[in-house]
Design brief:
Two copies of one chain form a homodimer. With 185 residues, the first copy, chain A, is mostly helical. The first copy, chain A, contains nine helices and no strands. Chain A is elongated and about 55 Å long. Chain A binds a DNA duplex (30 and 30 nucleotides) through helix 1 and helix 3. Chains A, B: This is DNA-binding transcriptional regulator YbjK.
Chain lengths: 185, 185
DNA sequence: ATGCGCCTTGGACAACTGCCCAAGGCGCAT
DNA sequence: ATGCGCCTTGGGCAGTTGTCCAAGGCGCAT
C-alpha cells in the first residue's frame, strides 16, 4: 500500500506536529520557529517547508489536532462534575495540553482560519455537554454548558498561576449543574 | 519640582507603556518588538532601552499596570452577578484589556517575575470577592470566588471565539452564588 | 560661556527569522 | 543500469530581532 519512503515521510510529519505542540506550550505560539521545530523533531530545517506550506499551517494543524484529540477522550459519567473534572485533574495549567488550548484561543484572535476551526470544535463539544445536561433535567442546558466550559478553561489558566485543590472546588461547581435541577424540583 | 526635560521623559515612559498594552493585545506578547513599540509611541527606537532595562521589563510593567487598573474599578454591587458581569459586558474578548489579561496569564507561565506579580494581583482581588460573598452568606466563599473569577476569565476567552448573549448566561451564573445560600436556607 | 544632567537620535552589531532551492539519496519498476 | 518519484540535506536570501553606543540637544546653574 505504501512505500517505505512514503512511510518515513508520514513519520516526519507526525514528529513535526508533535514537536509543534510541545513548543507552542513551551515558548508560545508566535515564538516557535522553523529551526526550533526541526531540531526538536530531529529533522533537517528544510523539511518543515517541504511537508507544510508554511509555519502557520503547521502550527494550526498541530494545535487543532491536539485539541480534537484531548476533547475526544471525554465521555459522560454518571456524575457530570466528576466526569469533567477528572480530565481537569490531569491538566494542571502548565502541561502541554492546557497551554496549547489557551495559546490557540489567542491565536484564533489573530487568524481567522484558526478561529473558525476552534469555534467549531468548541461548539461541537459544548453541544454534547448540553445534551448530557438536558438528559439530567438541568434547566437551560445550552447556557449551562457554555458557562461550564468557560469555567473549566478559566480554572486551567488560573491553576497555572496559583495551584488550588480541586476537591474544594467540586461542591461549588456542582451548584452549576444541580442548582437548576435539584433546587427547583 | 520637575524640570521640563524630566517631564518629557516621564511622558515618553507613559506613551511606551500605553503602546505596549495596545501591541500585546494586537500582536501577542512575544510578537511585540522594540521598533514596533517606538513607532506606535512616536519616539525613536533607542529610547526604549534608555527608559527600560529590557523589552521584557517594559512589557511586564505595562501589562501589570493595565491589569491593576482594570481590576481597581470593580466595586461590590447589591447584585454581585450584575456587578461582576457589568465590566464583563465591556470586555468582549477582543478588546485590549481582555487580551492583555490572557496574554499575561500565558506570559506568567514562562516568566517567574510576571507569575508572582499576577498571582498576587489575582489573589488580592479574589480575596475581596470572597469577602463580598461571605457578607451575603454564600457558603464556601473562598472556593466560590475562585470559581467565579475563573468563569469570568473563561467567558472572556470563549466570547472571543463565539460571541454569546450575556443575558442568557446570567441566571446560570447566579446559581453559583445563590445555590449555596438560597437553596439551602 | 562653560559645564553638568538628563533626554534623544540614528545607526551598528551579531543573531535570528520564514521561506526557497539546487543538489543528492533512496526504493522500485523497467 | 537507467529513469522516475518522493524524501532529504544544507546553505542562501532578504528582512527582522534585542541590545548597545557614540554623538548631539536641551534646560539650567555657574
Amino acid at each position: 500500500m505504501t512505500s517505505p519512503m512514503a512511510a518515513r515521510g508520514r513519520d516526519v510529519r507526525r514528529r513535526l506536529t508533535a514537536a509543534a505542540v510541545e513548543l507552542i506550550a513551551e515558548k508560545g505560539w508566535s515564538a516557535v520557529s522553523t529551526r526550533m521545530l526541526a531540531e526538536r523533531a530531529g529533522v533537517a530545517p528544510g523539511l518543515v517547508h517541504y511537508h507544510f506550506p508554511s509555519l502557520r499551517a503547521l502550527l494550526t494543524e498541530a494545535a487543532i489536532g491536539a485539541m480534537r484529540e484531548a476533547v475526544a477522550g471525554i465521555e459522560p459519567a454518571s456524575d457530570l462534575v466528576d466526569g469533567l473534572l477528572g480530565p481537569l485533574d490531569a491538566y494542571t495549567g502548565r502541561d502541554p495540553v492546557s497551554l496549547v488550548f489557551v495559546e490557540t484561543y489567542l491565536a484564533a484572535t489573530r487568524d481567522e482560519q484558526v478561529r473558525s476551526a476552534i469555534s467549531a470544535l468548541v461548539a461541537e463539544f459544548q453541544g454534547k455537554v448540553a445534551g448530557w445536561l438536558a438528559d439530567r433535567g438541568v434547566v437551560a442546558p445550552e447556557a449551562t454548558a457554555a458557562v461550564l466550559m468557560a469555567t473549566i478553561d478559566g480554572l486551567m489558566v488560573h491553576r497555572a498561576l496559583n495551584p488550588m485543590a480541586r476537591t474544594d472546588l467540586r461542591p461549588v461547581l456542582r451548584r452549576l449543574v444541580e442548582g437548576g435541577a435539584v433546587c427547583g424540583s
